[in-house]
Structure formats: structure tokens, C-alpha cells
């Protein structure tokens, strides 16, 4: 047997006996390790052993990754930084809080804090956050995003910045539910279903009554039609991409589109009063007030597109952002010095009223078509305070999704099979694992065929079947591919128990949604459908 074939055998035996996923063969570090060994003569070399891997080499690699991350951290002063945190329990039920920093370069894992034995109230969370702010530099932090837990919200008055997250999994489910309508209806009229009814007649009859009712399916279609507009807005926001400067306008446009959809269904003129829309509008505004901060207004106000004639002429109701004074609160917070405050007000007046350096035809023309950050780089040099502020806010996300998705990385590292890792060692491994992937995505080798997108997916490159193995960096709960995986089997190929559970889950979810729209909404839908 030749040497190459023998080496191949040893490598595959390592994979097979260790239960390693074949996706590891795409890992660029796998290729680099064997390439380095093949091109260097290292007599008597012995691969690192168990103890060395888990101790000295782990700390050495963490230090190496920290050095590699320095060029990204150096951009935070100019680009700004969003701190994101979220809570989780590891396989041994230890409560952890994950902290990540994200800017235009992508999300970076900062640290995970073991909260075992601690009272996780707003003061505890705020102190942890202050530590992270000090570590990254308070002048670099543009905003903080947490989840919706009461203790996280409670720190707002202590830290004075937060944004809620929003999810739309019920809408995803309802859309899928509508796609399998025919299969569900065939299920409840089958003889097999009649035999199942004996287990719970009331529940079975309830499910059958709903699934064969055209009126009920019309309600689902109606709910999907107007909530799709909310869902689409959430999908834009629930990513790692920079969209802080778009949220204000997205919410405003979404509410107007929801109104048009409801009025079309009710066959009303837009000037008429709709009791149903009145309730929906109240719910939407309540959520906006709950999550809105002056930072959203500031980012909206610095977007040159929203002052352009092209954007303003698209809707007669639109007004330029300088009509809203909320940004003043943020200006005063950012520029406590009176001289700087006066200067930034003068700069904003020049920008918003298109005076002096902004009277140039090129500057005016590019407001509508240019990327906002590019526009500020090209035309904002003469108003330095506002320009530096614009560079920071245009690089920030609005969601904690990157932090939530990183739990799949944590679970991959600290799984049920590796549950004896202590929290400190697990944190180091997550830090190395996540941030090496961040660095890899910015390299030219990331698109090479043999290592292409090595960190996305499992053994099947185009499958979501192994989502636990590695997170999907840009995948939100609401991605179309994920929708198709929610109920991946053909409904007619499921056994009766599975189909029944699918139907019950969908029915329950529908009523959860209608309850969220309040009983008044539900009653009004019934009234409109007569």
C-alpha cells in the first residue's frame, strides 16, 4: 500500500471511530494542519495530547484569537458597537448570560457569565453590562439590546438603552398550515381518524369542525394577509445586518400597509372608522412605544434618503425627519458640553435644511440613491461631529438574534456528551470557535470550493437537518428555508397520531394569535365575515 493511501486510511479511521461529522472535511483548519505537516519536516513530532489540548493550548489559542480580533476592535471607535446579551441554561442546568458585540464587521463573541447562585435581578444584570461596557470602551457603545425578560427591561433606567426582540414563529406556522390544508382535511374525514376519536371525542370533534370549515380557513387567510406585513418587517429587523436607521420608517410604513389591507377586506374608505383596525392599531402602537428609543429617531433623522424629493414624493403624507424633535434627547446625552451641543445643532440644521455644503447638486441627487454611510463619507466631511455620529449609527443592528443563535454554538461545544466541561473552559472554547469563524468569513478562502461556507450546515451542505451542529449566521426564525423545515414530511405520509398532533398544534396556535389580537378583534372578524 502506498503512503498516500495509508494516510487516507488513518484519517478516515479518525473520523469513523471518533464519530466526527464529514462536514469537518470542509474546515480550512483541517486542510491547513495536514498541508503544514506535509510540507515541513518535523522529526519525532507527536500530536498534542488530551491534557495539553484542554489546558495550555486552549489558553494559547484564545490569546491568539484575541490578537487576530484586534483589527476589528480597532474599528469600533469609528463604526460604533452594539452590545447584545441573552440568557440560557447549559446541559447541566447552569444559567448563563451571553454577551456579544456587533458592528459592521459582524457579531463577535465577548464573554459568557455563569450566574449559578446569583439573584438575576435588574441590578445584577446592569452590573454585568457595565463590566462589558468598560471592557469594550464606553465611548464605542452605541446601543444595548437585550431580550424581553423583566430583569433585562429593568436595567433600562440604570443603563438608559435597550431594544426588545420580536418573534413571528406563529405566523410561520400558520403559513405552513395553510399549505397543507388539503392533507389536513383528508385526515379528519378518513376512517383512521374516526378510530382515533374514541380517545378524546371532544377534542377530535373540535379539530374536525375547524378543519372542514370554510369560514375558519377564511379567517386564517385574513390573519395571514394583514399579519404578513408585520412579519415582513420583523424579518428585515431580525438579522445581524445594519438596519437601525431603517426601523423608524419600517414601522411607520408597516402600520399604514396594515390599515390598507384591513380596509380593503372590510371594503371601507380609508377615511372611515374601523373598530377592528382601531384595536390592531392600538396593539401595534403599544409595541412600538414599548421598544422605541430616541436612538431610533436619531438614526432615522441622519438618513439622507428621507430628506430627498424622491422619497418624499412617493407618499403625500410623508414629512422629512427633522419635523420630529426626539433626537434632541440623544444629542444632549452624547454632547453634554454646551459648545459641542451647539455645534452639532448647527450641523444638523445645515444637513436637514440642505444649506451651505449640502446645496451642491450632486449632494442633493445622491441623497435618494446612495447608501447612507457612503453618502456621509462623500459629502459630510464639513460637519465632522454629525458625520462621525452617522458612521456609528448606520452600522448597528436592531435585534439580539446573533446572541440567540450563538446558543447553538454553546450547545455544540457543551453538549450532553461533553457535559463535564467547567463553565470557564466551555467559555474559552466558544470564544475560540465562534470568533475563528467570524475571522474566516472575511478571508478569501471562505468561498473556495473545498472549504466553501464550511461553518454553515452539517454533512448535507444544503440541509437544515443538522442545525444543532453549527448555527446559521444570517438565518432567522422567519427564513423561507426554515419555514419549509417546520413540517418537513408530507402530511399524508404521517401516521394518524402525528397528523393529529400537527392539527392540534396549529389550532392552538391560531387561537393564541387571535387572543393576541384581543377578543374584540376576534369578534369583529366574525362580524365582518357575517
End-to-end Cα distance: 81 Å
Domain count, please report it.
3
Q: Give the overall average pLDDT.
A: 77
Structural class: alpha+beta
The best one-word shape is: globular
Sum this structure up briefly.
By secondary structure, the protein is of the alpha+beta class. The protein has helices at residues 3-18, 28-39, 50-54, 56-73, 76-79, 122-136, 150-154, 156-159, 169-179, 181-188, 191-196, 201-211, 214-237, 247-266, 275-291, 294-301, 309-312, 327-334, 338-353, 361-369, 372-379, 384-393, 401-413, 423-441, 480-486, 496-516, 518-529, and strands spanning 81-89, 95-103, 106-114, 141-145.
Question: Would you kindly provide a written description of the structure presented here, covering whatever features stand out?
Answer:
This protein has 530 residues and is of the alpha+beta class. The chain folds into 3 domains: 72-165 and 398-442, Nucleotidyltransferase, domain 5 (2-Layer Sandwich); 170-225 and 494-529, no CATH class; 243-393, no CATH class. 59% of the residues lie in helices and 6% in strands. It contains 27 helices and 4 strands. The protein has helices at 3-18, 28-39, 50-54, 56-73, 76-79, 122-136, 150-154, 156-159, 169-179, 181-188, 191-196, 201-211, 214-237, 247-266, 275-291, 294-301, 309-312, 327-334, 338-353, 361-369, 372-379, 384-393, 401-413, 423-441, 480-486, 496-516, 518-529; strands at residues 81-89, 95-103, 106-114, 141-145. It has a 4-stranded mixed sheet. Strand 1 and strand 2 (95-103) form a beta hairpin. Helix 4 packs across helix 24 (423-441), helix 9 packs across helix 13 (214-237) and helix 12 (201-211) packs across helix 26. The protein is globular. Mean pLDDT is 77; it is low at 157-162, 460-496 and 502-530.
Amino acid at each position: 500500500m502506498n503512503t498516500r493511501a495509508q494516510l487516507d486510511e488513518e484519517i478516515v479511521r479518525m473520523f469513523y471511530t471518533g464519530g466526527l461529522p464529514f462536514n469537518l472535511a470542509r474546515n480550512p483548519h483541517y486542510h491547513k494542519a495536514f498541508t503544514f505537516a506535509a510540507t515541513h519536516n518535523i522529526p519525532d513530532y507527536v500530536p498534542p495530547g488530551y491534557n495539553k489540548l484542554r489546558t495550555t493550548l486552549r489558553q494559547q489559542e484564545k490569546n491568539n484569537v484575541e490578537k487576530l480580533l484586534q483589527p476589528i476592535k480597532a474599528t469600533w471607535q469609528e463604526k460604533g458597537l452594539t452590545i447584545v446579551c441573552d440568557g440560557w441554561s447549559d446541559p447541566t442546568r447552569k444559567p448563563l448570560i451571553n454577551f456579544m458585540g456587533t458592528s459592521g464587521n459582524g457579531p463577535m463573541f465577548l464573554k459568557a457569565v455563569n450566574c449559578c447562585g446569583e439573584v438575576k435581578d435588574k441590578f445584577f444584570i446592569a452590573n454585568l453590562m457595565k463590566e462589558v461596557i468598560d471592557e469594550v470602551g464606553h465611548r464605542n457603545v452605541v446601543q444595548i439590546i437585550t431580550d424581553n425578560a423583566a430583569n433585562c427591561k429593568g436595567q433600562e433606567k440604570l443603563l438608559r438603552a435597550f431594544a426588545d426582540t420580536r418573534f413571528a414563529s406563529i405566523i410561520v406556522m400558520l403559513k405552513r398550515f395553510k399549505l397543507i390544508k388539503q392533507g389536513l382535511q383528508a385526515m379528519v374525514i378518513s376512517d383512521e381518524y374516526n378510530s382515533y376519536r374514541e380517545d378524546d371525542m371532544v377534542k377530535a370533534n373540535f379539530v374536525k369542525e375547524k378543519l372542514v370549515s370554510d369560514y375558519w380557513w377564511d379567517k386564517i387567510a385574513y390573519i395571514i394577509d394583514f399579519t404578513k406585513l408585520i412579519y415582513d418587517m420583523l424579518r428585515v429587523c431580525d438579522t445581524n445586518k445594519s438596519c437601525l436607521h431603517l426601523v423608524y420608517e419600517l414601522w411607520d410604513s408597516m402600520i399604514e400597509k396594515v390599515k390598507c389591507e384591513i380596509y380593503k377586506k372590510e371594503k371601507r374608505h380609508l377615511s372611515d372608522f374601523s373598530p377592528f383596525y382601531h384595536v390592531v392599531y392600538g396593539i401595534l402602537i403599544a409595541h412600538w412605544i414599548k421598544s422605541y428609543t430616541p436612538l431610533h429617531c436619531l438614526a432615522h433623522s441622519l438618513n439622507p434618503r428621507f430628506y430627498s424629493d424622491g422619497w418624499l414624493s412617493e407618499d403625500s403624507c410623508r414629512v422629512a425627519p427633522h419635523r420630529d424633535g426626539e433626537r434632541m434627547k440623544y444629542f444632549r446625552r452624547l454632547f453634554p458640553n454646551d459648545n459641542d451641543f451647539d455645534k452639532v445643532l448647527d450641523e444638523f440644521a445645515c444637513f436637514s435644511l440642505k444649506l451651505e455644503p449640502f446645496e451642491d447638486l450632486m449632494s442633493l441627487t445622491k441623497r435618494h440613491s446612495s447608501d447612507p454611510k457612503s453618502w456621509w463619507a462623500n459629502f459630510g466631511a464639513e460637519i465632522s461631529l454629525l458625520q462621525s455620529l452617522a458612521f456609528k449609527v448606520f452600522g448597528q443592528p436592531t435585534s439580539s438574534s446573533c446572541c440567540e443563535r450563538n446558543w447553538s454554538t454553546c450547545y455544540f461545544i457543551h453538549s450532553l456528551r461533553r457535559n463535564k466541561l467547567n463553565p470557564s473552559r466551555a467559555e474559552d472554547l466558544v470564544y475560540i470557535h465562534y470568533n475563528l469563524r467570524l475571522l474566516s468569513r472575511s478571508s478569501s478562502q471562505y468561498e473556495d470550493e473545498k472549504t466553501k461556507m464550511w461553518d454553515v450546515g452539517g454533512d448535507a451542505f444544503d440541509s437544515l437537518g443538522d442545525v444543532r451542529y453549527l448555527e446559521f449566521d444570517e438565518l432567522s426564525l422567519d427564513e423561507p428555508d426554515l419555514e419549509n423545515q417546520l413540517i418537513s414530511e408530507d402530511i399524508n405520509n404521517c401516521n394518524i397520531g402525528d397528523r393529529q398532533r400537527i392539527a392540534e398544534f396549529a389550532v392552538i396556535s391560531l387561537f393564541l394569535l387571535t387572543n393576541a389580537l384581543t377578543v374584540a378583534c376576534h369578534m369583529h372578524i366574525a362580524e365582518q365575515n357575517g
